[in-house]
Design goal:
The structure holds two protein chains of two kinds. Chain A is mainly α. Chain A has one domain. Helix content of chain A is about 75%, strand content about 0%. Chain B is mainly α. Chain B folds into two domains: about 120 residues, RNA polymerase sigma factor, region 2, helix turn helix motif (Rna Polymerase Sigma Factor, Chain: A); about 60 residues, Arc Repressor Mutant, subunit A (Orthogonal Bundle), CATH 1.10.10. In chain B, about 70% of the residues lie in helices and about 0% in strands. Chain B has eight helices and no strands. In chain B, helix 5 crosses helix 8. The longest helix of chain B has 23 residues. Chain B starts with 8 loop residues before the first helix and ends in an 8-residue tail after the last helix. Classes of the chains: A mainly alpha, B mainly alpha. The interface between A and B is medium-sized, with 26 and 43 residues.
Chain lengths: ~80, ~190
């Protein structure tokens, strides 16, 4: 960091970094749990053909039925992973 | 202040890589304002696009943390990721609405200023909690003297002088860092 700052400039710089919306921060913080859930679903789909077919037929409903919250990003990634296999 | 908030960026990255969920929470907390500001102030993305970029940045950070070669360089890495994703979003928008293109020199200037702002926040994190609280309320949450006085149960006549005192301490902390004395995170 260079230069010196008077109080006014410090105030301006402090104002620049506003908090991100709480929901965004929480969602990002929950990523590790979401990833674990995703891996768990994929493993289960590999071991259980009926579950895999239910996921392919209606992903959101199958996830809800299996007790997972169908988060938009998880659904998108899961769809991609299921179709890759 | 929790122990995690005093860790250096490199130490925090190591803890995240070890699977410590609290360290991950701290990493998101530490860089969330920065990523948010790059997307919304630097590149002027709308809320929906900014949210997509924000989540994608942290998803990539989480999944690629093991590839980071220099743990201390996590901030520039996050900045670069955010910048790239913002540019992708703008390029996509530009194809849909050509007038959405941003002026690159304006963006660069804005990003340089955000780097300065991040350094100021790093210095702020080294101040006593009372200073972090009052400066945060006044400058980033736009609270009035009256609200601060009521919520912190402080005489309203002392708020301006406390803010000035804390800004003075912040300046000393920044100058100390510039001279190489470093703060707790450095």
């Amino acid at each position: 960091m260079t230069g010196s700052f008077d109080e006014e400039r410090l105030g301006e710089l402090l104002r620049l970094l506003r908090p991100a919306p709480d929901g965004w921060v929480r969602a990002a913080q929950e990523l590790p749990f979401a990833r674990r859930a995703l891996d768990e679903i994929v493993e289960r789909a590999e071991a259980d053909l009926a579950f895999r077919e239910a996921l392919i037929a209606d992903l959101e409903r199958a996830l809800e039925g299996a007790g997972y919250e169908p988060d938009e990003r998880i659904v998108a990634e899961l769809r991609e992973r299921l179709h890759r296999r | 202040m929790t122990a995690l908030s005093t860790l250096s960026d490199a130490q925090l990255v190591q803890r995240c890589r070890g699977g410590d969920p609290d360290a991950w929470n701290e990493l998101v907390e530490r860089f969330s304002r920065y990523v948010y500001a790059i997307a919304t102030r630097g590149f002027r993305l709308g809320e929906a696009d900014a949210e997509d970029v924000f989540q994608e940045v942290f998803t990539r950070v989480y999944t690629n943390l093991h590839k980071l070669r220099d743990d201390a360089a996590v901030r520039p890495w996050i900045a670069q990721l955010t910048r790239r994703l913002c540019l992708d979003t703008i390029a996509k928008k530009g194809r849909e609405q050509p007038e959405a293109e941003a002026a690159p020199e304006e963006v660069d200037q804005g990003l340089a200023e955000l780097d300065e702002a991040f350094a100021v926040r790093e210095a702020l994190a080294a101040l006593p909690e009372a200073c972090q609280e009052i400066l945060g309320r006044f400058f980033t949450r736009d609270q009035s003297y009256r609200t601060i006085s009521e919520e912190l149960d402080l005489p309203s006549g002392t708020i301006a002088s406390r803010i000035a005192r804390c800004l003075g301490r912040l300046r000393v902390e920044i100058e100390g860092r510039s001279e190489g004395s470093g703060g707790s995170r450095e």
